[in-house]
Amino acid sequence: MVQNGNSEMRLASGRDDEVSTGRQPLLVWLNGAGWHDVSENLMSAEMQFLAEAGFAVAFIHYRGTELAGWPAQLIDCKTAVRFLRAHAEQYGLDTEHIGVIGRSAGGHLTSWMAMNTDGFDSREWAGCSSHVSAAVDMFGPVDLPEQFAFDQHLIDTVPGYRFKTIAESHAGRLIGGDIKTMVERSKAASPDYFVNDGMCPILILHGDQDPLVPLAISEHFYDILSKAGMEERTEFYILKNGGHGTREFFQTSVRYLIVDFFERKLREGE
Fold first, then answer.
1. Which of 114, 139, 152, 177 is surrounded by the fewest CB atoms within 10 Å?
2. Whole domain around residue 178: which residue ranges?
3. Is pLDDT above 70 for 1?
């Protein structure tokens, strides 16, 4: 157990009786749930296929918006990667091949991790890098101003919608502060505004029937990456009839896409 502020980060390292096959490439899983404080093991069963493919999988916990606002969540994710690098020998991890994967709010954080930006690092394990080599963003709200616009549309048009104002929305709770400046300030928490040459390869997955995070956000993200010259580092798939984390994301063909991506980008260094 590692403490960082009010957050706990735990490594799900498998059964104690497993036979070691040497150092394994590592995948870090980031949960969604609107940046709320949920169990890091919430999706462990669904992600078992990654362990079965031969990757070490770490399920980490980052501070939810109940405990802290932005950028605490990204700081925790980066701290977790440095912790894992610092303890790589203990856990049998290949620190040269670390990937990250997340869904929804976790996809937003995954895309931030893919940018490999500095400036969000705490002092813990400062001698280790928080950079990653591959990332899978599953329907992440990577453009928060666009997410705010979508939420506002739903507030205005859907009777009895769960949020009454954007300040009450998941993104609103993440950004906090003056509602008059919230949308503009949210650009600083949107990874698509920070695309740079240091970013790692990224696979983007989004359903065409997502009712919570509009497909347009991932489409726009892909366009930004392509225009920035990152098209060769970017793969984008739209899942037909896919909702917000519905079963389409866990069908065999999609699992194959994810494993194949990490195989090529981490194991083979494509």
1. 177
2. 144-189
3. no
